[in-house]
Each structure stands twice: as structure tokens, then as C-alpha cells.
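Can anyone check this?
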Amino acid sequence: MEDMDVKSTTRSPADASSRPDRRDREAARRDGRQLPEDDIRARIQQLTIRQQRFDRYLASELGVDAPGLEAMDHLIATGPATPTELARRLGISTAATTLVLNRLEEAGHIRRDRHPSDGRKLIVTAAQSSADRAYERVLPMIEGVEELIEGMSAQERTAVQEFLDRLVAVYDQATG
């Protein structure tokens, strides 16, 4: 049984469950073999790890914590927001948002001004200098991704887009 190759541990493509089951995958890992979709699964995992590493790098470069980086990302990407709007986007309480904004303001990353049409509200804006610093660090990655995309054929782009759309749907479904 230990000498079985990958083909013998997977189901035939005609079978409705042609994916190797958990036992097949575990046996292949123990034997140092890699099943075909494990290659994609491993790459997705590596991409996730790299994204987390990049987020930590960017937070460190900007001198913010993870919640601060997420708030900055929203403010830079979508523009000024009220603290309540920002709390909703971040999925945290307004009290927690206030703490995040206090730290960001102390570090000079944001400013809070009176709302132009409702003087009772505040509007939070990312400081241009912080947005510029973030962009300088993100730009090489953006350019690298653009270069990869430009080098793909239309057929490759379509396949990757369809796969990523389905992957996003899996994540969305998992998080409700």
C-alpha cells in the first residue's frame, strides 16, 4: 500500500468525487508525494502567508498596528469617512474605532475635521504624507502584478479570473 503512486490513490475523473479525499492527501504528504490540487492549494496558502507578511511589513514601515493599517487602507482607498462609517467598514465598535483613530492621529496619519454639512459630526481623512508613504511601499507590488497580468494571454487571464472569482466566492460563503 505504501508503494502506491498518486494515480492509485485518487478517484477516476469519471467519478463524481474525483478529488482525493483527506486520507489520500494525508498519505501523500506522509510519503512526500504531492497531489495535483495540493500544488494549487499550497500556492494559495503561500500567497496568504505572503499577504500577511506584506501587511506586517507595511504596518511596521508606517508605524501602525494591524487595526490602524486596516483603517488607513479604507481611508486611502475610499476616501474620508465619519468614525461611525469607518467602524462599520472595519466591523468593530465605535469605541474601538475611537482608540484606533486616537493612535493614528497621535502618529500624524489622520486628521479629524468637522463634517462640511453636519457640524455635529467629524470626518476622518488620511494624511497625504502617510498615504504617499504607503503608496511608495505598495507601488512595487502593484507594478509587479500589472507586469504579470500584461504577460498573460487572454485565455490565461480568463482562466485565472474565473478561478479567483470562484475562490472569492468560497471565502464569502465561509464568512457568511
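Reply from J.R.: I decoded it. Residues 1-17 have pLDDT under 50 and may be disordered.
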